[in-house]
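// run 5 | inverse folding | seed 20
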C-alpha cells in the first residue's frame, strides 16, 4: 500500500513538494496555518507565482491525491517544510520547526518517517527534532526513522529542479537515510546521496553561502571599479575568459530567503571562525545603501529633484517574491530621506508605493532606476518614458539595458560599477 504523506508548511517548497508526491501516486495531506493557502488549495488554486505549479496542483487536487488542512493528522511520513527566519540577533528562529515537530507527536507510530526539509543550523535534526520526537516514547532511529533532506530548487524553476536535481539525504542512522532515499527516489531523477544529518545540514548551508560569498566579491569589485573609474562589467567579462575564473554579477544587493539568511546559521554556530562568511554577508547587505549614496549624488540633494521611479521590486527577476529584496530596502532608505518613490512591478500585488500604470509611475520623475531585470521590461518603450520624465537620468543597477541604445535615446545612462564618482 502506498504511504500517506503529511507535509507541514505549504510555502514555496512545501506546496510544490506536496504536489509532486501527489502526482506520483501518494495520498498527500498538506498542512498550513494560513487559511487562505488551505482554502485555495482545496479549490485547486495557488496564491504564489511559479511556472507549472498551478496546473499541477489543480490536477492532483482534482484527483483527490492532495488535500489541504490546518492541522497535522495520521500519516506514515511527515515532512516539515516550515520557514526558519533569522531574528534581529542574526540567529535562526526555530519556533516554526519546533511547533511543527510537536504537532506531529500524537500521530507517530512504529515505522513512521520524519523528514526535516527546512534550512536549519547544524545539529537541528539530531538534537532539537530528535529530542522532541523522543517524547512519543518510541525509539527514534529504530521505531521512527528521522532525517534531513534539503531542497535545492531555484524559484522560477521549482518543479523542474525538484525532479531533476541531485539530492543529499542525511539520516540519524543508516536505515533512516535509506528509508528517506527510497521515498524521494519515486520522483527524483538526479542522484540521491546518503550521509548523516549534520553533514546534510551543513551542505545545504554552504551551497547558498558559496554563492553569497561569490556575489559579495562581485559587489566589492563594483565599488572598487567605480572608484578606479573602470567598468566592472568589462573587468568581469574578460576575467571570466580565464578557464578557471567564474565571477558572478554585482547588483543592488542579495535578497530572497536563502542567500541573505542561511550564511548567518553558520556564523551562529562558529562566530569565531566564520569571518569570510560574515564579511560577505555585510558587503551584500551594504549594497542598498551604496545605491542610495549613488542616487543622492545623482540628484545632488536638490529639494526639487525628489521624485524617483523604480522598475522592479522583487528580490530577483521574473518572480513575485519580495522577501529580503534589496530594492525594497533601497525604497525604504529613499522614503526615510523624503524622496517620493513610485514603484512599478507588475508581479507584486501588495506593495507600498506601487503604481499600476507605468506611464503614471514615470511622469515627472527626476530619476528612473532599473532595479530588477524582469524579462517583460525588455518590451518597455524607454523613449516614451524619457518624454514623460523631468530629467534624463537612468540608473541601471544590474546591467540590464544596452548602454548605447539608452544614450542614443537621450538618457544620461548610469550603471552600477561603471566609473561612478561620489
Ligand atoms: N544575485 C546577484 N548576482 C548574481 C546572482 C544572484 O546579485 O550573480 C542575487 C539575486 O539578484 C538575488 C540573490 O542573489 O537577490 C539570490 O538569487 P539566486 O538566484 O542566487 O538564488 P535563490 O535565493 O533564488 O535560490 C537559491 C539557490 N541556491 C544556489 O544557487 C546555491 C537555490 O538552488 C536554492 O534551492 C535556494 O537558494 C534555497 O531555497 O535555498
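// decoded
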Amino acid at each position: 500500500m502506498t504511504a500517506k504523506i503529511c507535509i507541514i508548511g505549504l510555502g514555496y517548497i512545501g506546496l510544490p513538494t506536496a504536489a509532486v508526491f501527489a502526482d506520483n501516486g501518494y495520498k498527500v495531506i498538506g498542512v498550513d496555518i494560513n487559511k487562505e493557502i488551505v482554502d485555495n488549495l482545496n479549490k485547486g488554486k495557488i496564491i504564489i507565482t511559479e511556472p507549472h505549479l498551478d496546473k499541477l496542483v489543480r490536477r492532483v487536487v482534482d484527483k483527490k491525491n492532495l488535500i489541504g488542512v490546518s492541522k497535522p493528522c495520521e500519516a506514515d511520513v511527515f515532512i516539515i517544510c516550515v520557514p526558519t527566519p533569522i531574528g534581529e540577533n542574526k540567529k535562526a528562529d526555530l519556533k516554526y520547526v519546533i511547533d511543527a515537530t510537536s504537532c506531529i507527536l500524537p500521530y507517530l507510530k512504529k515505522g513512521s518517517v520524519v523528514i526535516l526539509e527546512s534550512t536549519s543550523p547544524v545539529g537541528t535534526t539530531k538534537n532539537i527534532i530528535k529530542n522532541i520526537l523522543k517524547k512519543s516514547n518510541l525509539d527514534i532511529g529504530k521505531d521512527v526513522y528521522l532525517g534531513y533532506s534539503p531542497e535545492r530548487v531555484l524559484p522560477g524553476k521549482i518543479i523542474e529542479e525538484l525532479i531533476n536535481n541531485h539530492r543529499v539525504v542525511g539520516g540519524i542512522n543508516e536505515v533512516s537515510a535509506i528509508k528517506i532515499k527510497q521515498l524521494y527516489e519515486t520522483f527524483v531523477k538526479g542522484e540521491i546521496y546518503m550521509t548523516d544529518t549534520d553533514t546534510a545540514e551543513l551542505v545545504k548551508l554552504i551551497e547558498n553561502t558559496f554563492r553569497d560569498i561569490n556575489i559579495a566579491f562581485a559587489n566589492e569589485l563594483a565599488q572598487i571599479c567605480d572608484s578606479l573609474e573602470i567598468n566592472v562589467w568589462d573587468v568581469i567579462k574578460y576575467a571570466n575568459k580565464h578557464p578557471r575564473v567564474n565571477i558572478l554579477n554585482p547588483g543592488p544587493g542579495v535578497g530572497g530567503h536563502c542567500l541573505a539568511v542561511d550564511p548567518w546559521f553558520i556564523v551562529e554556530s562558529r562566530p569565531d571562525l566564520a569571518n569570510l562568511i560574515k564579511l560577505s554577508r555585510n558587503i551584500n547587505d551594504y549594497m542598498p545603501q551604496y545605491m542610495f549614496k549613488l542616487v543622492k549624488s545623482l540628484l545632488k540633494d536638490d529639494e526639487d529633484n525628489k521624485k524617483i521611479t523604480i522598475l522592479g521590486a522583487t528580490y530577483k527577476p521574473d518572480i513575485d517574491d519580495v522577501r529580503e529584496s534589496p530594492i525594497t530596502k533601497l525604497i525604504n532608505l529613499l522614503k526615510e530621506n523624503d524622496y517620493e518613490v513610485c514603484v512599478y512591478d507588475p508581479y507584486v500585488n501588495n506593495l507600498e508605493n506601487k503604481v499600476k500604470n507605468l506611464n503614471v509611475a514615470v511622469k515627472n520623475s527626476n530619476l528612473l532606476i532599473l532595479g530588477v531585470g524582469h524579462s517583460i521590461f525588455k518590451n518597455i518603450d524607454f523613449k516614451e518614458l524619457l518624454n514623460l520624465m523631468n530629467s534624463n537620468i537612468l540608473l541601471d543597477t544590474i546591467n540590464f539595458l544596452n548602454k548605447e541604445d539608452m544614450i542614443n535615446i537621450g538618457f544620461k545612462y548610469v550603471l552600477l560599477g561603471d566609473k561612478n564618482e561620489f
